[in-house]
Amino acid sequence: MKKLQFMQSGYFILLTSFFVVFLFAVFNIFTIKHFNQRIEEIYKNSLNYSSNYWADQFYVANRELTSLINKNDGTDYNLICDSSDPAFIAERSSDLQRDLTNLSLLNDNRIVYFVFIPDKDMMLSSISYLDYFQETENEELKKYILNNQVNNSAAWKDIKLGDNYYFLHLYEHKSGFGGCYISCENVLRDIMPQDQESNVSLLNMDGSVFYAEKDAQEYKNYFVFSRAIRMINKKISIEIPHVNFVSSGSYLFIIIIIAIAASILLITIALFYQEQSVFKPLTKLKKAMEEFSGGNTQVRLNDRTSNHEIKVLYHTFNHMAEQIINLKIDVYKASLEKQKVYNQFLRVQIQPHFYTNILNLIYTLASIKDYGTIKDLTKNMAEYFRYLLSLKEDYVFLEDELQCIARYAQVQKIRYQDNFQMKITCNADADTEKIPPLLIQTFIENSIKHNIMLVQDLEIILVIEEAEDMLCIIVKDNGLGFPEGILDKLNRDEDIEEDGRHIGIMNVKNRLEVLYQGKAVVSIQNENKGSRVAVSIPRIRKEENTQIEYITC
């Protein structure tokens, strides 16, 4: 009787155990399925990110290429196409080469920009030095361009140069071609972590393989994720072996074997294991994601865990976090570098007429043996040039700038003698205030250039005042003033450049916009006699940047 009761109790415990294990197994299957879906979602998100990133890169490359070649007739490309002067072409080619290199640097040299002008036998590339294989690819590229029709569309074409595959965009303008190309290898690079088992390839839209990595592996069982890239009609495809996902069948079999041996104890252990190996890591991952999205970009997960799937998940999260931070840093650095290059470009954009006129003046003075005046002139010009060549920063002390203006005014007085006078009044602390270099000289030079031969006894007055957090600079003259058409365009911030004329004032406006982010104010107006230019900029005292309030001078 006792034996029968024991057997019944054993059967009951066994059946109960199997029933509980069955329910637990069902629950576990759904849990693992959900877990695999989360991993699959992460892979898809990584693929979507790469697809969108390269789609943006192709779009930006199109826009930059169009701007470089067809922005206006004054671009280096258009000037080269229209010129037959070898010296001029050589000079512009150097500038165009630099522009191509700068464009490529903004993309970490992943995109190669080039210009090909057949009738001048000119091929410029953002790659400064070409090896033998790159030279061979260049020759094949020239043949491709000459033998194929270019329709100036936004579409990219896939070509093979040498042993490499590329995506090529061409733009035909005037007598030449501009273009850029991206290697398929660069497109697939860094999509997946290097230690992650996977095959990454590019597919045609019909699913056939267009380009695959050379070290691709063959998997018997694998998952495939793909996403199309706009602009090139191709898809990025990722093959992930099943080993990277949880195998629910083997996992369930182990649970059942252990459950038969351990019965109820197994359930407790299994539940505890489930909590520790799945729910807590997922909760930890969720909190890390919330912290990262909340601004804590330093949060990382320790992927040293015995659970392979959790390790893959944590490692993928850490990799994605690093990629996002690196992308932000690259975009920020590229923006700063582009702004710095643009600011330097504006600052050195000075007309050479002043220098040639001074040399002619020295020649004239030497002819009449006026050596005293030559000594004064060369001394002032030496100090003036020393100051210009020493400019490396975006801001200089007001005292240094005023000394430069005084030397410039002295040179002009020697040129025009009694027909020119200048008065400088500074009611600011010139030792500590900082302003952009050559800011004031531009307006003084403009007054002299447009009035000195038309007005008897030209007088220019420079006044500098402090007004709370702003520094006000006023330049007045007794000249003829600005033409009404030019004045209206200046006050509406419209481009007034015509064949290189009026470039100085637009230069100043653009520099102030870059340096002060719209917080500088420039007012230009005509008075009863002459013109009045007032510039109001935020005060910068040595290394201190103060808060800005708008004040009209």
Radius of gyration, in Å, reads: 36 Å
- Quaternary structure: single chain
Structural class by SSE content? alpha+beta
The global form is elongated
Q: Mean pLDDT score, rounded?
A: 78
Strand order within the widest beta sheet: 2-1-5-4-3
Set down the secondary structure blueprint.
Blueprint: H1 2-70, H2 76-82, H3 86-105, E1 111-117, E2 122-125, H4 132-147, E3 157-161, E4 164-173, E5 176-183, H5 184-188, E6 199-204, E7 209-212, E8 222-229, E9 234-241, H6 248-262, H7 264-293, H8 308-347, H9 353-367, H10 371-389, E10 396-397, H11 398-416, E11 420-427, E12 433-435, H12 439-451, E13 458-467, E14 470-477, H13 484-491, H14 503-516, E15 521-526, E16 531-538, E17 540-541, E18 544-545
Helix pairs in contact: 1-6, 2-3, 6-7, 7-8, 8-14, 10-11
Tell me what the structure shows.
The structure is a single chain. This protein is α+β, with helices and mostly antiparallel strands. Helix content is 52%, strand content 20%. It has 14 helices and 18 strands. The protein has helices at residues 2-70, 76-82, 86-105, 132-147, 184-188, 248-262, 264-293, 308-347, 353-367, 371-389, 398-416, 439-451, 484-491, 503-516, and strands at 111-117, 122-125, 157-161, 164-173, 176-183, 199-204, 209-212, 222-229, 234-241, 396-397, 420-427, 433-435, 458-467, 470-477, 521-526, 531-538, 540-541, 544-545. The strands form four sheets. A five-stranded antiparallel β-sheet has the order 2-1-5-4-3. A five-stranded mixed β-sheet has the order 11-13-14-16-15. A four-stranded antiparallel β-sheet has the order 7-6-9-8, with helices on one face. Helix 1 runs antiparallel to helix 6 (248-262) and helix 10 (371-389) packs antiparallel against helix 11. It is elongated, with a radius of gyration of 36 Å. The N and C termini lie far apart (111 Å). The model is unreliable at 1-11, 345-351 and 545-553 (pLDDT under 50).
